[in-house]
Task: structure prediction
Amino acid sequence: MKTNKGIAYTVSIIITLLHILPFYLLLTTSLKPVTDLSSKWRLPTKIDFSNFTNAWEGANLGRAFINNFVITAFSLLLVILLGSCAAYPLSRFQTKLNKGVYTLIIATLIVPPLTILVPLYQFYIDINGMNTYWGVILLHVTFSLPMAVFLYSGFIGTIPRELDEASMIDGLSRFRLFFTIILPLLKPITATVLIMTGISVWNDYQFSVFFLQKVDMRTITVALASFFGPNTNKISWVAAGSLLAALPATLLYLFMQRWFISGLASGAVKG
Amino acid sequence: MRMSRNSPGWLNLMYVPVLLLFALFIYYPFIQGIRVSFTNWDGFNVNYSWVGLDNYVRMLHDKNIGTVIRNTLIYGVGSTFFQNVIGLMYALLLNQSIRTRGLTRTIIYLPAIVSPLIMGYIWYFFFQFRGGALNDIVLLFADKPINLLANPHANVWIIMAVNTFQFVGVAMIIFLAGLQSISKDYYEASSIDGAGPISKFFNVTLPLLAPSITINIVLNLIGGLKLFDVIIALTKGGPGYASQSLSTLMYKTYFGAQDAGYAAALGNLMFFMIAIISVAALLFLRRKEIQS
Result:
């Protein structure tokens, strides 16, 4: 049994190093001046933060960060609100109609946005949704909802129905019951939805590159991609910008990971 | 009183906003996409004409479509296979009570938090021809650097591996959640029956992980078959059509060649491929779950 532990430790250390490797390369690249052509494996001889300031100014990352924050915050708010409200009746009242609606919502998971890009793009021109916050927010919300409804209804299924009945005998309406009893109980799964949706919206490239083409409306990924042409020698800037872009989502995850995992366990696996 | 206890009242209508959003931004465009695929529309002009099945016939005769479909399948099925096998091994390892497990789990999951486009750039720094990290090592042993991203036999697999690397942590977390929901009683019972570790894995662990396996396979299939950002970051689908997937080809056809009708037809092909493969996988796996 003891030797098993030894192997487990060794293997887990090797795996850890392997998975850190790309981040190590990103860090060394981002700290070296553009003119430094030494191996990426080597740490920089002196720490140079100029790439961060250059990337920030050159790609107008400040503006891109604001765009990302606005889009992510409103998308999250809507996904959590619409997702939890839709999941409650679907999980609690499995009438024929509701079962059909549930299946329809989950089945929508298999429609990736890219498969309907051509008509969606045209539709957005028609409704003047191009280069607008609301346009891209509604897209993120729509395409995040199937997963959110799936997780929420799985989780609501693990909350005993007796709780609903007891509070209704106490005279609560369904409406009050949902907002005062059920919604607070949904915290762990809300954390999971928050992280999954937040990260995918924050990191999005597909929607942003098609629907936010105006320079002022660019999100971080689009701003970075505009740096990264085939002839660019500004790889260090891209690396620095990438590190900055990854920071908020990483902090969100590290801060909330405990709830994230317990929420996944009850919402996706048991539900 | 009985009415209000057994029916959700107007709360039942709370899924209507979701259905409205779907109708507006998914179902309606989807139907429009089918219509556009029967036209020769260029994406800009008001004038276009109906061409019937021409776009689909053209697809059948497209000499590159075979490569593109094969690549799409490698990205989808290949990543799914490796994410599940490696993710399960990681989960089994990190379900043991070793002290470093929390840190290792977090680090394995970390790439999933980074944008796929940025993850593509990071691996570009590794594989790039001039100044790439890989070639720094290669040049110690050989006198010429290797250009794997321009190599049509290698780049498809590199893209698949990068996608696997990025999302193996998600598979691992879902497997860990599944493992932790298995009651210890099952293992004790099988110990009494004299089962060894291998027999325990196949008779207890694997069957009880069935729901986790189903979720992982379906999500990974959908994610891999629609892969886009990583391909754009690493090869832009090239050289030629070598690493192109249906998604990048559709993008190129629509914005590059201004051929909206054909692009819509490619989008529809992609949708039906994803739908058929993931629904088939789901039905197959659900049947297994019920048996176990």
In short: Chain A touches chain B through 88 residues (CB under 8 Å). Residues 1-48 of chain A form one domain. Chain A has a mean pLDDT of 88. Residues 66 and 102 of chain A are 35 Å apart (CA to CA).
